[in-house]
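Priority: low. Protein: Thiol peroxidase. Input follows.
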Amino acid sequence: MSTIRFHGEPANTVGELPAVGSAAPAFALTAADLSDLTSESLAGKRVVLNIFPSIDTGVCAASVREFNKRAASLDNTAVVCVSADLPFAASRFCAAEGIDHVLVGSSFRSSFGKDYGVTLLDTPLAGLLARAVVVLDAEGTVLHRELVSDIADAPDYDAAVAVL
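Result:
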């Protein structure tokens, strides 16, 4: 279990992010078109997992916008924006914002949050995902991980991209 903050109050997650140097857990998310978006479908690419509670919050939306900008210049890299939101919400947001360099994946019917240790156990956000970034190399090894210490804060974009 990890403890972070939500509006200054402790917020606990179900576990820990995978360690740097370890093999990332396989994942299966639901893509915007309701198809499966899996780690296997991204095999051979570097992957940035931008994990957050909900696209309907300012910091989460800003992280999708920022990673979309950065993804345009990353070779052989898939940036996957992951939340427990329904795929329709993420799709609608991306269409309205002109976001087309990232993939969106919903954890709403998968064990992603548990497998990556990011499902929130308490606070009003219980059941949603904590804000985190995990970067994988083309073989699926964890190069970088960040569990943002306060859900209201943005991740360290520069650190995430620097390991690529």
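The mean pLDDT is 95. DSSP finds four helices and nine strands in the chain.
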